[in-house]
Write a sequence for this structure.
C-alpha cells in the first residue's frame, strides 16, 4: 500500500441535484457555506467535497446509510452521473475531462461495474450476458465465447451457460453480473451494493467468493455497501459517508478502535471486537520501550491477525511477538495488553 | 388542513345548491321561451362549412401527394393480394398451420386448421384472403410508423407532449370519422381501407413502444453503458430487446385494431373482402348469409390474435426447452405447402376449391330465424317493449311523457306526481342523513332526470349540471375541459344529437356496469364462473364490432333497442374483467388479517375486498364507457339517432365538416368522461394508499 502513487485519486467531488447547479461553483466557498447556499436554493447537495485515494490492489469500501450519497459517488466515478465539480484521476488521467468517445473506450477496457439489481439483459443467455461487453467491442464470436467461458468458469457457473437470467437464483444472477464486469479485464472494479439484494447466507457465500476472486485478480476496487459488517469483512480501508460527505476513512481496526465521532461509534457498538481488533492495533498502545527485541521461544504472529485468531496461541504462551508481512519485528503483546484494550473498547 | 377541508366542503355544497336552483329555474320556465329547450339555430357557427372550405383547399393543393402515396402502396398491396389469391388453398393452410404451431403449439395449430377449413368450406376463401392481404400490408406499415413515433416520443419530452393528446384524440374520434378525410385525400379503392387501418392501428403501437422503453430498468441501461456501449448499441442491443415483450403486446393490439378497421372500411366498399360480405348481406337483411360471413370475420380475428399473442408471449418464455422443434415443424409445413402447390398443377380441386364441395347453409339458418321470430315473436316483442317503456323512454323523455295508457296502462295523475315528489324527497333526506349530502344530491339529480327526461332538460341546466359534476370530481381543469367540449357541441349545432348519444350511451353503460359488475363479483368468488366467463369475454373483445350486431339484429330488427343491446354486449366485457381483477387482486395481507379477525366470506367481500377494489372497478367503468362509445358509432348501422348517425351519414356524403364536428363531439364526451373517472380513481387510490 503505497500512498504516494494511488491508482485512483478523487479530489473535491461535488454533485448537486437541481436545475443549473453549476453556478454554485462559480465562486470559491468553503465547504460549509457552499452547502448552506445550495440548500437555501432548494437544491440537494448529494455529494459534498468528497476526496479519497485508492492504491492499486486495494479494496476500498464506501459505507453509508441510504441517502448518504454513496451510490452517487460511485456513479460519478463511472460518469453515469456527471458531477458538478472535482477531479477523478485514474493513473493520473482526469476522467471528468474525457470526451464521450474516450469515456466509452475507458469503460470498454479499464472500468468494470457490478450493480445491486444485477442489470442483466433479460433476452440474453448467461453466455450472451457475459460476452456482451466483448460483443460491443467488436470481438469475433470465437474470441467472445472463449473469454466469456473463462469468466463463467471463474465465477463457478459452468453448466449454466445457456440459461436465461430469469431461470437463475439471485446469487447466480449476481455471479453473471460479476463475470460480465470482469470480461474485459478492467483495472478499476466498481461494485454498487452487489450483495445487498441477496439473502444473508448467500451474501456471506458471495463475500467469500469476492475475496477469493480479488486474491486471484488483484484489482483496484471501490465497493459500496450499507452493511457495516460487510464493510469490515471485505475492506482494506473504509470510508464512512453521511449526508453526502465522508465522515471518516480508515482501516477496519482503526474505525473500531478510534471512531471519529458518535455517528461512527454507533456503527461500531455492536461489532464483535474479537474479530476486528488486530495485534497491530493492540501493539500501537503498548509502550514501545517495554520490549524492544523479540522474546526467544515465544510464537510470532502477523500484525493483521485478529484477537479471535491468536487467542488460542495467547493462552498457551502469554506473550506474543508481532511482526509485519515482511517478517520485521514490531513489538510484543501480553495477555494484559489484550485485556486492557478490550476493556477500553467495551466501556467507551 | 381540517378547517380548509371544511371550507371546501361548504363550498361544494353551495355549488350544488346553486346548480339546483339554476336548473329548476330553467326547468320551470321552459315553456316561456323557446331558446331554453332548443338552442336557437341563429346562434350557431357554421363550423362544418368552414372545415369543409379548409379541407377543400387542402385537398386541392395536396391531393397529388396523397394520391402518390396511395399509388405507391398499391404495389405491395397488389403483390400480397395476388400471392394470397393465387396460392392453392391447401398450400396456404399448411403454411398457416406451421406458423400457428410455432406461435402456440398443437392447440393453436388445430384451431387454425379448423378455422381455415371453415373459410374454404363455406365458400368465402377469396374474400377471406383479400381481408388478410389488407391486414398483412397495413400491420407492418402501422408497426413501423408506431414504433418510429413511439421512439421519438420517448426520446424527447416535447415530442411526447405533442403525441400524447394526439393519441387520445385518435382513439376517441369515431372510426367512421377517420374515413372521410382519408377518402377525400387518397381516393377510393381497397388501398384506402388499408391506409385507414394502418393509421387507426398506430396508437397502441406508439403507446406500448413508449411504455416498453420507459420501463427498461435503469440498472440494465447503466450496465450497458458500463460495458462501453455507444448510443446506437445501447438502443438496439440493450433498450430495444429489453422493451421487446411490451412492444410485441403493442403489435398484437395493432393487428387487432387494423383488422377491425379493415372490416369497418368495407363501408366505403370496393374491396370485395369479407367485411363487405357481412355488411352487404346485413343491409339486405340476409341474416343467414351475414352470420356465416360474420363467423369468418370472428375466426380471422381470433386467429390473428392468438398467433400474434403467441409470439409476444413466446419471447418471455425459455427458448432452451424446445430449441429445434419449431424449425422442424416449419420445415414439414413448408414441404407440405410446396407439394400441394405442385400437385395443384394437375389436380384442379386443389388449386380452386370446387363449388360442389361448398357447404353453405344460409337458407336453413334463415328458415330457423324465421321460425324463431314467428314462434317467439310475442315474447321478443315483450322484452323489447318492456325495456323501451320502463327504462329507455323514461330516461329519454321522462316519466312525465312516458306514462300513458298505451305504455304503462294508466295516466300520470296529480296524486302520483305528488307521491313521486314525496317518495324522492324522503329518499333524499334519508340517504342524506345516513351517507352524507352528496348522496342526497345524486338521488335528487336522478329523480329530476327520470321525471323530465335527459333529452328534455334545458341546455343551460344540463351544462351547469355536467360541468359542476366534472369540476367537483375531477378538479378545475377537467371542469373547464368539459365546459369547452359542451360549448363546442352547442355552438356547432350538434347539441341535441350529442344529448341523444349521451342518453343511449348512459343507458347502455348503466346496464352493462350493473350486470357486468355483478358477474365480475360472482366470477371473483367462484373459479368455475371465472373459467366460464373468460373465453366468452375473450371472444367478445377480439370480435370486430359490427359482427356483434348480426345475432341481435336477427331477433330484434333495426332500431334503438338493437343498438342498446349491441352496446351492452360489447361494453359489458371491461365491467366484468376489471371488477373480477380488482376483487381478486386485493392485497393478500389485508384479506388474511380480515380472516384472522373472524370475518365471514361475505363480510370479506363487502367490507374488505370491495372498498379496496374501487379504484380498479372505476377504471373498469371508464373502459365500459369507452367501449360503449366505440360501439355507439358502429350501432349507427342499425339505426340510432345521435352523433354516431351524423358521422355515418356524413361518411355517406363524404362531408368532411359534418363528420369532423360530430366526431369531435363524441371525442369530447369520451375524453371528459375519461378524465373525470381517472381523477376519481386516482383520488380513491391516494386515499386508500395504494400505489
Amino acid at each position: 500500500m503505497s500512498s504516494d502513487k494511488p491508482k485512483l485519486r478523487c479530489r473535491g467531488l461535488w454533485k448537486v441535484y437541481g436545475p443549473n447547479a453549476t453556478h454554485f461553483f462559480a465562486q470559491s466557498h468553503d465547504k460549509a457555506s457552499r452547502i448552506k447556499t445550495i440548500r437555501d436554493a432548494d437544491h440537494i447537495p448529494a455529494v459534498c467535497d468528497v476526496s479519497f485515494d485508492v492504491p492499486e490492489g486495494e479494496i476500498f469500501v464506501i459505507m453509508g446509510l441510504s441517502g448518504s450519497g454513496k451510490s452517487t459517488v460511485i456513479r460519478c466515478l463511472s460518469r453515469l452521473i456527471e458531477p458538478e465539480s472535482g477531479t477523478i484521476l485514474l493513473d493520473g488521467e482526469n476522467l471528468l475531462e474525457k470526451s464521450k468517445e474516450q469515456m466509452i473506450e475507458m469503460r470498454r477496457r479499464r472500468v468494470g461495474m457490478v450493480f445491486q439489481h444485477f442489470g442483466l439483459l433479460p433476452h440474453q443467455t448467461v453466455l450472451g450476458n457475459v460476452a456482451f461487453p466483448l460483443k460491443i467491442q467488436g470481438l469475433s464470436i470465437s474470441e467472445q465465447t472463449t473469454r466469456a467461458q473463462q469468466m463463467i468458469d471463474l465465477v463457478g457457473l459452468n453448466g449454466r451457460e445457456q440459461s436465461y437470467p430469469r431461470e437463475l437464483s439471485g446469487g447466480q444472477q449476481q455471479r453473471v453480473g460479476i463475470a460480465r464486469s470482469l470480461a474485459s479485464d478492467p483495472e478499476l472494479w466498481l461494485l454498487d451494493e452487489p450483495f445487498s439484494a441477496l439473502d444473508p447466507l448467500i451474501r456471506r457465500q458471495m463475500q467469500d467468493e469476492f475475496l477469493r476472486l480479488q486474491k486471484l485478480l488483484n484489482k483496484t476496487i471501490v465497493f459500496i455497501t450499507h452493511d457495516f459488517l460487510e464493510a469490515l469483512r471485505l475492506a482494506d480501508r473504509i470510508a464512512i459517508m453521511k449526508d453526502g460527505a465522508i465522515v471518516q476513512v480508515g482501516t477496519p481496526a482503526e474505525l473500531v478502535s478510534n471512531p471519529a465521532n458518535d455517528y461512527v461509534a454507533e456503527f461500531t457498538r455492536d461489532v464483535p471486537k474479537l474479530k476486528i481488533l488486530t495485534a497491530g492495533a493492540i501493539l500501537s498502545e503498548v509502550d514501545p520501550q517495554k520490549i524492544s527485541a523479540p522474546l526467544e521461544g515465544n510464537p510470532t504472529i502477523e500484525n493483521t491477525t485478529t484477537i479471535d485468531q491468536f487467542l488460542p496461541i495467547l493462552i498457551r504462551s502469554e506473550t506474543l511477538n508481532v511482526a509485519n508481512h515482511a517478517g520485521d519485528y514490531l513489538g510484543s503483546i501480553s495477555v494484559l495488553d489484550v485485556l486492557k484494550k478490550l476493556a477500553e473498547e467495551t466501556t467507551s | 388542513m381540517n378547517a380548509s377541508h371544511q371550507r371546501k366542503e361548504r363550498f361544494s355544497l353551495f355549488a350544488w345548491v346553486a346548480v339546483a336552483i339554476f336548473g329548476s329555474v330553467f326547468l320551470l320556465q321552459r315553456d316561456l321561451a323557446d331558446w331554453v329547450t332548443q338552442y336557437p339555430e341563429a346562434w350557431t357557427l357554421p363550423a362544418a362549412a368552414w372545415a369543409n372550405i379548409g379541407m377543400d383547399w387542402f385537398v386541392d393543393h395536396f391531393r397529388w401527394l396523397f394520391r402518390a402515396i396511395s399509388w405507391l402502396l398499391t404495389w405491395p398491396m397488389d403483390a400480397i393480394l395476388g400471392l394470397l389469391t393465387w396460392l392453392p388453398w391447401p398450400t396456404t393452410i399448411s403454411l398457416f398451420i406451421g406458423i400457428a404451431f410455432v406461435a402456440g403449439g398443437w392447440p393453436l395449430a388445430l384451431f387454425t386448421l379448423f378455422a381455415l377449413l371453415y373459410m374454404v368450406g363455406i365458400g368465402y376463401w377469396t374474400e377471406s384472403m383479400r381481408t388478410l392481404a389488407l391486414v398483412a400490408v397495413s400491420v407492418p406499415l402501422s408497426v413501423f410508423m408506431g414504433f418510429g413515433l413511439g421512439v421519438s416520443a420517448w426520446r424527447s419530452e416535447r415530442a411526447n407532449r405533442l403525441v400524447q393528446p394526439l393519441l387520445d384524440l385518435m382513439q376517441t374520434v369515431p372510426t367512421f370519422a377517420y374515413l372521410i378525410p382519408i377518402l377525400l385525400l387518397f381516393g377510393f379503392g381497397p388501398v384506402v381501407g388499408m391506409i385507414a387501418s394502418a393509421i387507426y392501428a398506430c396508437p397502441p403501437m406508439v403507446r406500448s413502444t413508449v411504455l416498453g422503453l420507459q420501463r427498461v430498468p435503469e440498472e440494465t441501461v447503466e450496465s450497458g453503458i458500463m460495458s462501453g456501449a455507444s448510443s446506437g448499441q445501447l438502443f438496439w442491443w440493450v433498450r430495444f430487446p429489453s422493451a421487446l415483450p411490451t412492444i410485441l403486446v403493442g403489435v398484437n393490439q395493432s393487428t387487432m385494431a387494423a383488422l377491425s378497421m379493415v372490416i369497418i372500411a368495407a363501408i366505403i366498399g370496393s374491396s370485395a373482402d369479407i367485411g363487405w360480405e357481412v355488411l352487404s348481406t346485413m343491409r339486405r337483411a340476409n341474416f343467414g348469409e351475414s352470420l356465416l360471413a360474420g363467423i369468418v370475420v370472428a375466426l380471422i380475428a381470433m386467429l390473428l390474435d392468438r398467433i400474434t399473442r403467441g409470439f409476444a408471449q413466446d419471447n418471455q418464455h425459455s427458448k432452451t426447452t424446445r430449441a429445434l422443434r419449431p424449425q422442424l415443424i416449419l420445415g414439414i409445413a413448408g414441404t407440405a405447402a410446396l407439394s400441394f402447390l405442385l400437385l395443384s398443377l394437375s389436380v384442379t380441386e386443389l388449386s380452386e376449391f370446387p363449388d360442389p364441395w361448398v357447404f353453405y347453409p344460409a337458407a336453413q339458418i334463415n328458415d330457423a330465424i324465421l321460425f324463431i321470430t314467428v314462434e317467439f315473436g310475442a315474447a321478443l316483442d315483450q322484452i323489447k317493449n318492456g325495456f323501451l317503456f320502463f327504462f329507455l323512454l323514461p330516461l329519454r323523455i321522462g316519466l312525465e311523457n312516458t306514462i300513458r295508457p298505451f305504455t304503462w296502462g294508466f295516466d300520470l295523475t296529480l296524486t302520483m306526481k305528488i307521491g313521486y315528489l314525496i317518495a324522492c324527497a324522503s329518499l333524499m333526506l334519508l340517504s342524506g342523513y345516513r351517507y352524507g349530502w352528496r348522496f342526497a344530491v345524486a338521488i335528487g339529480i336522478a329523480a329530476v332526470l327520470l321525471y323530465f327526461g335527459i333529452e328534455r332538460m334545458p341546455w343551460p341546466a344540463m351544462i351547469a349540471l355536467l360541468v359542476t359534476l366534472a369540476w367537483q370530481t375531477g378538479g378545475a381543469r377537467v371542469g373547464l375541459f368539459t365546459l369547452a367540449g359542451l360549448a363546442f357541441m352547442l355552438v356547432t349545432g350538434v347539441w341535441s344529437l350529442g344529448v341523444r348519444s349521451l342518453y343511449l350511451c348512459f343507458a347502455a353503460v348503466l346496464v352493462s356496469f350493473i350486470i357486468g359488475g355483478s358477474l365480475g363479483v360472482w366470477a371473483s368468488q367462484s373459479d368455475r364462473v371465472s373459467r366460464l366467463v373468460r373465453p366468452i369475454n375473450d371472444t367478445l373483445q377480439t370480435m370486430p364490432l359490427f359482427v356483434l350486431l348480426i345475432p341481435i339484429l336477427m331477433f330484434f330488427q333495426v332500431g334503438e333497442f338493437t343498438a342498446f343491446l349491441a352496446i351492452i354486449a360489447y361494453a359489458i366485457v371491461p365491467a366484468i374483467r376489471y371488477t373480477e381483477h380488482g376483487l381478486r387482486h386485493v392485497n393478500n395481507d389485508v384479506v388474511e388479517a380480515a380472516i384472522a379477525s373472524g370475518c365471514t366470506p361475505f363480510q370479506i367481500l363487502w367490507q374488505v375486498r370491495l372498498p379496496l377494489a374501487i379504484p380498479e372497478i372505476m377504471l373498469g367503468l371508464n373502459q365500459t364507457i369507452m367501449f360503449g362509445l366505440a360501439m355507439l358509432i358502429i350501432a349507427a348501422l342499425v339505426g340510432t339517432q345521435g352523433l354516431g348517425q351524423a358521422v355515418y351519414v356524413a361518411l355517406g356524403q363524404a362531408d368532411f365538416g359534418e363528420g369532423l364536428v360530430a366526431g369531435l363531439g363524441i371525442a369530447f364526451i369520451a375524453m371528459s368522461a375519461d378524465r373525470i373517472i381517472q381523477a376519481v380513481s386516482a383520488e380513491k387510490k391516494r386515499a386508500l394508499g395504494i400505489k
In short: Chain B has a mean pLDDT of 87.
